[in-house]
């Protein structure tokens, strides 16, 4: 069994209204020492796979096709095998 | 990361402009008129301004033929949107825009920013946006890619309109193989305003200020105008630099702030325009051009999201949610204060000059200095000669459908996604916000009340690529007639139209032929039906790997209802109403939905359209509705009488018994200019006197069955069974 | 009745509430910007639908920091009537004025449609014009209307009779079909359906009028009692 | 300067419609070896602070008040000081 941890973020050149609003609000509330905000998505997938390579290939495909919009987002992930006891 | 800019000489040799859509001869023309070699910024601006999207270089000769004026038109094509008087001092403002290419590349944001863009066109005139409609065309939803495309386009339209608080009240969704690689995403916005408050996009008066308002400029969608003016190839799908992201929250603030300026600081405002295709350059150049002035802009003052942007990037960025205002000198602070209140950037970035030149500076250096007219009037216009495609010169033999079991055929048509209920799509749109929606999506036309008057507007979009594929001229006329029919069916007098002209590559004579011919049909129909074209948009190059879509002009039409008690629906209201058909039925199957469903494509010679007859039938329906003689009215469209009758049973689950002296197959014929109406028995004599033989009594409403007796076959089905097929088909196809 | 409609940046049903209360009911109503800091003089405060601050983080998550919020909390704590509709409901839960949270609809889609509701409690200031068990049809228009509360909270809500409206055909996955509920004290109501969109025969019918008429009655009786 | 990495997840007891839909879709598309899906939000804040403790306290407050809805969500975070050169 493998666990994939996946991070999906907007590409730096893409406008992110979400981050914008959070940063503006923090500023208004006095948290004006926060100089940069990045908002992303985080996923964990638990999957059965023959081996690490197979798990990684599948995770990459799922990210590319479903979890990230590759027009506007980039993704990165780690995959690790879970101890059997789990 | 500043690179040294290519010198004018290098540009001449290496021709980087080719990849921006400018041809070598256009470059030469530009240089010749300028009297020297242009620098990178100048030729970059030319590539945007001389694109089809901005300059209409191929379509201008066609657009010139449109009929654009009658006594109600207050402002025709040429501004952000057109304006028509609707009485009681009010005016309706509307326009449609296509976002086909952006939506093919990035469906969610492409569709969302399409809606955002068309809304800006409406409030730039000073009107409050009151409704959005969307006209969509996809391939049949058989593959996962198309299903996802539909889902994302609908999500994008919904998320933008829902958040900004403008109801999406209608539209259409078509499915045909021709759109599989090249979907159509057209959006229309309608606004209402006082006649006296019309704004124009102009920058006049030497020394007046140019105020940049809204979102910061980033590197998104750079040179999208040229992008939209180029053919699409799947090999290019990897090259996706042009993704713009919409921010409906920002736009909501912009709408409110800009309307506050137009209403409360009218004396300070010279002009206002949105930054759409070719962003900052097209908005400012057009504003200067319309007023006959020049301007100078300091690019260092332009709010920028990213450091190190070049003049080319700043000027051609298509970042969303930005407006350009021209403000009288001395009134800047007063206008800026309004935007401050809404937390919006508002910055003076330049001034109007009297020398007719368009000058840009960055870091103290002049980076562009050209005559305004070089970017506008001097753009080339191509008088393309059309050539009739062979398939039109020699149409296939007439299609003879096989209808051995009319009930089965009816079910097949009700399940076809073109006819099937679209509620699973449009229920993702807020259709009620602003609380003026009398009839939302699902009817022949949407109806919205006009606040502050006793009137309502009826709105529809219509397109029919199947007909235009067989005959662009007649098909163009039919599209206009069909839109008018939909308005008349709800009780509205058609007022005028906007359009999106979705075609293939105009440099191909056969594609240009379609554009030209369909314009002829549109012009003829608009004149007879008294519906001038007041605004519109051209989307050419709808081709993928050399294959063009069927010519598909989308007609958005607005009508007026002067008496709110006459708003009419398509559903049977009670048992015992008399059902009449207006207009004869013939064996018109070429181009029909039945042909597409049975053969997978359309062929043959298209049926004709008698515009005088059309007009007479529409007038009859409208007069009868206004005289309160009609309980329900529905135009007969895709799938013919059979489908139209079935649709009329669905609203309240009231059935009907109908007899027609027609071959059963003709229940699905698509002869034009027909309506179905129901008349309460008490109004029978009055209606028949008015109809003077134009309407034929064919049956009565009632019961739980739809019974149709034809000459050689019959349909007898429970309404509930038909309705289930009609309602569940699309959700099932999209699963 | 003297009502206030709070307008947050991104609210889009504030004008509809003004129209319903001011024009249709003919009552006094004032729009109050979220940047204001007092609500004195009002006997009803409405938190409208829309997408406050874009609703980009979570619905209502940013609105709860608006300058008006301390005044709203004080108003509610003093027993004033507060009605949050759609985004207003989301804001009230985020601000802790109502229990629970509103999650994404189970379909993950925005849904706009007429929704039949059953009146679960007709003994509140917001529903006294309805009959218990009566079905009323109001429009819904939301993406995040799926009501959630942890089991203990849910149990307390039910035991207290705080649920005022339930969906007849649950469209969004809400626990116990909850469409609208009050706080324990009964002076704050949040609901996802839009009563202000159903106050005129021509537009959507008049099933929503009861909410405002109930409040008018409760307020006038209260004012009478206070005299 | 400090960088905070923040993860906001639904509490295990709360049914997450988003995770549900992703898992169903994966199953439908044939990725039925994915046995569990968690959907969370990921934030990065860059902030100036006097020291690690101050930064952590501020981040905890921002999470609690704004970035997470504590009715349904939990959060965890790491804060690390950025090398000065950056
Ligand atoms: N994409 C859409 N957005 C909004 N409304 C839509 C959409 N697609 C279809 N509809 C609604 O469904 C109704 C039926 O569509 P259609 O069959 O094209 O109508 P008609 O044949 O009368 O022109 C339209 O009037 C419209 O209100
Ligand atoms: Mg119709």
Percent of residues of chain A in beta strands?
A: 35-45%
Percent of residues in helices of chain B: 25-40%
Low confidence ranges of chain A: none
Strand order of the largest sheet of chain B: 8-10-7-11-9-12-13
The SSE string of chain A, one letter per element, is EHEHE
CATH architecture of chain A: 2-Layer Sandwich
Bound ligands: adenosine-5'-diphosphate, magnesium ion
- At the fourth level of CATH, the homologous superfamily of the domain at 568-735 in chain B is PurM-like C-terminal domain
Name of the level-1 CATH class of the domain at 568-735 in chain B: Alpha Beta
Terminal CA distance of chain B reads: 47 Å
Q: Mean pLDDT of chain A, as a whole number?
A: 91
- The number of strands of chain A is 3
- Number of DSSP helices of chain A? 2
| Cα radius of gyration of chain A in angstroms | 17 Å
Question: Which secondary-structure class do the elements of chain A indicate?
Answer: alpha+beta
GO molecular function, one term (chains A, D): phosphoribosylformylglycinamidine synthase activity
Pathway (chains A, D): Purine metabolism; IMP biosynthesis via de novo pathway; 5-amino-1-(5-phospho-D-ribosyl)imidazole from N(2)-formyl-N(1)-(5-phospho-D-ribosyl)glycinamide: step 1/2
Enzyme class (chains A, D): ligase
Keywords (chains A, D): ATP-binding, Cytoplasm, Ligase, Nucleotide-binding, Purine biosynthesis
Structural key phrases:
heterotetramer, B: 735 residues, alpha+beta, Phosphoribosyl-aminoimidazole Synthetase, Chain A, domain 2, 7-stranded mixed sheet, C: 227 residues, alpha/beta, Rossmann fold, 9-stranded mixed sheet, two-stranded antiparallel sheet, 5 helices, 11 strands, binds adenosine-5'-diphosphate, binds magnesium ion, metal-binding (chain B), magnesium (chain B), ligase (chain B), ATP-binding (chain B)
